[in-house]
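Let's sit down with a protein and look at its sequence and fold side by side. Go ahead whenever you are ready, and we will take it from there.
>
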Amino acid sequence: MVLLLWIGCVTVSGAILFLVMTRMLNGVLPKKSQINVWFEVNNQILNALFTLMCLYQHPKRFHHLVLLIRWKPKDVTTLREMYCKNGKKKPHGRAHIMVVIVLLLVNCFAQYTLCGLNWGYKRSERPAAGDGISLSVAIAGAAIAGVYTMMSSFGKEYDLEVDEEVQDQILINITRQAKHLGSFERRFSFASRNEHSWWSMNLNGMEGYLILGMIFL
């Protein structure tokens, strides 16, 4: 419901901004000052809507980045359900997911920059170059991420019997556990040898006392 409301607001405000920019409302807005006001109001509305969407999506995208870095079997399943077609494993899936997440994060930061320029400067004082670059990067980041998701291995069907990436992670975990177990066994073996030496020394001492006692008797 909220998403539909957001889409409706973007559509209405975007349509008004398009009509103002193409001079199709000159009959309704004969003065240039009126055109500038309507342009700026709708521009700020769109800026606020897209900034809110980035603020909503950014924690989720950052969480996906953490899962990508951690890359445990459960994390792999979660990321595949989010980015891969039918949630199935794809060739070089980790690298492809990283590209998409980085592009989406670039989209967020570019939108924040654009929001700062729109809210920090008046329209007459706003740097056109910074405004244009941040807007272009924000649009390009989201667009390229969408196209990359459809055109890369994410949008294709593959029948992979072996998941090499998950197997590598499992092997790494097994190796770490084996090293930890080996160090524990070495410590236990060392402690056992010390205990055995202690008992041997005590037994030897007791044998000596017994022999001395037999001699004196």
Notes: Confidence is low (pLDDT under 50) at residues 201-217. The chain has six helices and no strands.
